[in-house]
Specification:
This protein is about 50% helix and about 15% strand. With about 220 residues, it is α/β, with parallel strands linked by helices. It has a domain of about 150 residues: 3-Layer(aba) Sandwich (Rossmann fold). It has a five-stranded parallel sheet with strand order 2-3-1-4-7, with helices on both faces. A two-stranded antiparallel ribbon has the order 5-6. Strand 5 and strand 6 form a beta hairpin. Bound molecules: BIS(adenosine)-5'-pentaphosphate. BIS(adenosine)-5'-pentaphosphate binds next to helix 1, helix 2, helix 3, helix 6 and strand 6.
Length: about 220
């Protein structure tokens, strides 16, 4: 593996998926989202999808062993050689240690961990207004990034849905899980001097400019 390896870290709704897609386009780096992979496994009715579904619907994390094996398989594919953006992984210290071991084995360390420091009010607003295309995975926001025609995906014309885990009570649970299990990774990566924080409250364009600036200085 060569190329730039990036982890996007941040609470649910911080904009990791949205900005990973743009960075992937502008910098030609592969985007790997554990949330997207798990949702496609659920849709396809695979064994992994069946085991993951109840955790995702209730806002809990899918067990580490399942997710680590899934990422290990993904990182063994040849298309990761030019680098990748990990969106939604790692999410626990165990997962971070497993990733470290995988990258050490291939002698390809992480380039940077970009932390989206985002306030709770912004998160709740973004998640409650998010609409997703179940077919092509494009995300919209009813006010910030509305589709051209209400409720319809600009790219593939499918009817947009609200994700099951974007209900207010599940958003609260996901935030709790983030603070308990994922936020400790900030300290983990600070110690390894790979962490850089960006202001996740910024709107799309200024945040994208900030991310591009961070990548330029690596
Ligand atoms: P996952 O799909 O990864 O969800 P998440 O981390 O909770 O993140 P989201 O997809 O909700 O938010 P995002 O930060 O990508 O924001 P987005 O760009 O969409 O995971 C789902 C579930 O899968 C987990 O709860 C867990 O169960 C399981 N899972 C996944 N990975 C796992 C792992 N490693 N271990 C265990 N379990 C795992 O943006 C949100 C909205 O805001 C959108 O509407 C967007 O249009 C808008 N927006 C984005 N950025 C901006 C901006 N800068 N300005 C204005 N609006 C913006």
């Amino acid at each position: 593996m060569t190329g730039l390896r990036i982890v996007l870290l941040g609470p649910p709704g911080a904009g990791k998926g949205t900005h990973a897609k743009v960075l992937s386009r502008t910098h030609g780096i592969l985007h790997i989202s554990t949330g997207d992979i798990l949702r496609s496994q659920i849709q396809a009715g695979t064994e992994l999808g069946k085991r993951a579904k109840s955790f995702i619907d209730s806002g809990k994390l899918v067990p580490d062993d399942l997710v680590v094996e899934m990422i290990q398989d993904r990182l063994n594919r040849p298309d990761v050689q030019k680098g990748f953006i990990l969106d939604g992984f790692p999410r626990t210290v165990e997962q971070a240690k497993a990733l470290e071991a995988m990258l050490e084995a291939s002698k390809t360390p992480l380039g940077v961990v970009l932390e989206f420091a985002t306030s709770e009010a912004v998160i709740v607003n973004r998640l409650s207004g998010r609409r997703a295309c179940p077919k092509c995975g494009t995300n919209y926001h009813i006010r910030n990034i509305p589709p051209k025609q209400e409720g319809i995906c600009d790219l593939c014309g499918s009817a947009l849905i609200q994700r099951k885990d974007d209900k207010p009570e599940t958003i609260r649970e996901r935030l709790k899980v983030y603070h308990e299990q994922t936020a400790p990774l900030i300290k983990f990566y600070k110690k390894r001097k790979t962490l850089r924080a960006v202001n996740g409250d910024l709107e799309i364009e200024p945040l994208q400019a900030e991310l591009a600036k961070q990548l330029q200085t690596l």
